[in-house]
Design a protein that fits this description.
This protein is of the alpha/beta class and about 350 residues long. It has 10 helices and 14 strands.
Length: about 350
């Protein structure tokens, strides 16, 4: 499922096939029907084609020396889909943030057909991110709504021929720990074994994840090893190397390293001095003036600057290379970039230099 030379259906064919279930429109988000059954034979044919061309990254990354690279794409980032061309050889998968679950378990859809077409054009396999539109994960509370949510995701993957799903429920709720586990078990039971299931995990979440029970059900855990300091905190590093390393070490104690994807920030923050009002600065928006004032903080292994009344912290190429080296040293499955829309050619050069081509 994770090969690069995949023979993917054309955009028109994909959208036509999606019409057999529920309509998908970027301009008008719609809810997917959960009663339409998937066409099993069609799905198996597509998966067979994918497996025949698989060559680069193995399931979970256990038997491949090359790190996998997941690139997230947020729907609110207004960038031309053509910018994906620069990352085509750097990404194993793209995970667009197009879908969220409602309290009843149906899906809200903000799919961008231009990005979909670009991903297909450049042969970047798609594992969409599915989040929670309410922030409360109300759909987890009953078996009926969990079943609806699972059916919604299954229908989405089947009709769009995605390679799996990335589950991102934030913030995590400790009170729903058993329900989240039950949901992930139901999801694994519903999807073909070849479909990849990733789950994003938030550090220091108060025991919201039952890792022992989740590990057999998922392909991988995306460790959100960023935002050590962000909105609501005083100024400080976004992802200090020692902090990230400690998070990875902790997670390795409860899940196999070959199932961990290390989160890497492609951005920084700007704080007015003495406040907690941080503003995100994408990597490609860090100006020459900021870079000229920047200094490398040897304690945190991250760039920082003081300009006028503002404090800046950001990840640079050196910091990204260190995170890649950490993932290699710890024998992790790969890295996960938040987000591709923030990157530029320098980032992709760093990926190619330190990891190699993904296709």
């Amino acid at each position: 499922m994770n090969a690069r030379g995949i023979q993917i259906l054309s955009l028109a064919s994909v959208i036509l096939m999606a019409g057999c279930g529920a309509p998908m429109s970027h301009a008008s988000p719609s809810k997917h029907s959960t009663t339409t059954k998937k066409t099993v034979s069609t799905r198996k044919n597509v998966q067979s084609t994918i497996h025949k061309t698989a060559s680069k990254v193995t399931t979970g990354g256990a038997s491949s020396k090359k790190l996998a690279v997941i690139g997230y794409w947020a729907h609110h980032k207004a960038l031309p889909a053509s910018s994906l061309s620069a990352s085509a050889h750097s990404l194993t998968y793209i995970s667009p943030f197009w879908y969220t679950l409602t309290s009843s378990g149906t899906i809200k859809d903000k799919m961008d057909t231009a990005v979909l077409a670009a991903a297909h054009k450049f042969h970047i396999p798609i594992i969409p991110l599915v989040g929670d539109s309410t922030g409360r994960q109300a759909f987890l509370s009953s078996n009926a709504t969990r079943k609806t949510a699972v059916q919604s995701i299954d229908h989405l993957i089947a009709t769009m021929h995605y390679q799996g799903v990335d589950i991102d429920f934030e913030p995590p709720h400790t009170s729903l720990k058993p329900e989240l586990t039950a949901f992930m078990v139901q999801l694994r039971d519903s999807l073909p074994s070849s479909d990849r299931i990733l789950i994003d995990v938030v550090p220091h979440s108060g025991g919201a994840y039952d890792y022992a029970k989740l590990a057999p059900e998922v392909t991988g855990f995306q460790l959100m090893s960023y935002d050590q300091h962000s909105r609501g905190t005083p100024a400080g590093p976004v992802a200090a190397l020692n902090w990230v390393s400690s998070l990875a070490t902790r997670l390795k104690k409860v899940v196999p390293p070959s199932k961990i994807y290390l989160g890497v920030a492609l951005y920084g923050y700007e704080w007015p001095i003495g406040t907690t009002h941080a503003v995100t600065i994408p990597y490609d928006a860090i100006t020459p003036a900021i870079k000229a004032k920047g200094v490398w903080n040897t304690r945190y292994q991250e760039m920082t600057a003081h300009i006028g009344g503002n404090v800046y912290w950001w990840e640079n190429r050196k910091g990204i290379a260190q995170k890649i080296a950490l993932a290699k040293k710890d024998h992790l499955a790969g890295i996960a970039l938040w987000q591709v829309g923030y990157a530029n050619s320098a980032i992709y050069h760093e990926l190619l230099k330190n990891i190699g081509k993904q296709s």
